Amino acid sequence: MASNFQVPLRYLIIRARAQLFETTMVDHSGWYNGLLSIEEASALFIDRAAWLSRLAPLLGRKEYEQKYALCLVHRHVKLEQGEQMVATGLITMPEKVPPSDIEVTIFPSAWTATGRPFEWQRVEASEDRAPPPPPDLVEEFSKIVGENSVLGLSSAPGPLDEGYVWWESIDHPRRRHILHSAPRERPDLPAETVFETCWGPTYIHSTSLTAEIVNALGCCVVCKSSTHPPICEN
User: Fold this and answer.
1) pLDDT tens, position by position, 34-92
2) Alpha-carbon distance 50 to 69, whole Å?
3) SS3 64
4) Which end of the chain lies in a sparser environment, N or C, as judged by fewer CB atoms within 10 Å?
C-alpha cells in the first residue's frame, strides 16, 4: 500500500547539503593544515608588480567593484578535525559549524584560485553576505594565475581612511586571527616580520564624467609574522 507521506523537497535539499558539508569538513581540516604559512606563501609571490598590474583590470571590472580582492592563500592556526576558520567581526577562529548554519548565517569569504573556500564569515542577515566569486571570474582568474597558485580571492575588506590598512596578527595560544586598522607605515615593526596579504583595486577617475580607470592593486591587509606575538591583544 502506497504511503501518502512525502518528504518535502526542501528537507531533502537541506539534508543533502548537510551530508555533503559533513563529508567535506572531515577532509577540510587536514587540507587547511597543509596550506603554506604566511612566510612561505609570501616567499613564493615573486614579480609582484607584474602580477598586480596583470590582475588589476580583472578585479577592477565594474561588476566586481568593492566585492573582491586578491589574497595570499595561507593558514593561520592548526585546525582540529571538523573545524573551519570563521570570522565574527574582526576575530577569526576555529569553529565546528553545524551544517544547518552554512549558507544561512555563515558564508565563505576567501577562496583558492579554483574557487574552494578556506575561510568563512558569520553574518547577521543573508543580504550581508559576501557573494561567492561567479564562475566566470574564477575561471578567468584561474587561467591567469594557475590552479595551484598561492594567489586566491577574498571578499573585499572594509574601506579605511587614506594611509590606513587592515593589520592582521595571530594569537596562537587562543588560536585567534585578529584584524585591526592602523597606519600602513609601522616603523616600530621590523620589515622582515611584516607581510602583505591582500590587495584591492585602486581607481583613478578620468576626465570623463563616466569613466574610471583601474590603475593597480593596492595593499589592503598586512600580516605580522606568525612567529611573533600579536600586534594587538583584544
Assistant:
1) 999 999 999 999 999 899 989 999 998 989 988 999 999 999 999 999 999 999 999 99
2) 16
3) helix
4) N
Phi first, then psi, for residue 229 (nearest 5°) are -60, 160
**3-class DSSP assignment, residue 1:** coil
Q: What is the DSSP string of 184-206?
A: S--TTS-GGGEEEEEEEEEEEE-
Question: Using CB atoms within 10 A of its CB, is residue 11 exposed (0-12), middle (13-18) or buried (19+)?
Answer: exposed
Among 141, 164, 139, 142, smallest CA distance to 218 is for: 164
Which phi-psi region, left, alpha or beta, contains residue 115 (left: φ > 0; alpha: ψ -120 to 50)?
left
pLDDT in tens, 144-170: 999 999 999 999 888 888 888 888 888
Neighbouring C-alpha atoms within 13 Å toward the C-beta of 44: 16
DSSP class of residue 51?
H
| Bridge partners for 133 per DSSP | none
- Residues 152 and 56: their CA atoms lie apart, in Å, by 14
**Beta bridge partner(s), residue 221:** 166, 198
Question: Considering only CA atoms, which of 38, 26, 36, 35 is closest in space to residue 177?
Answer: 38
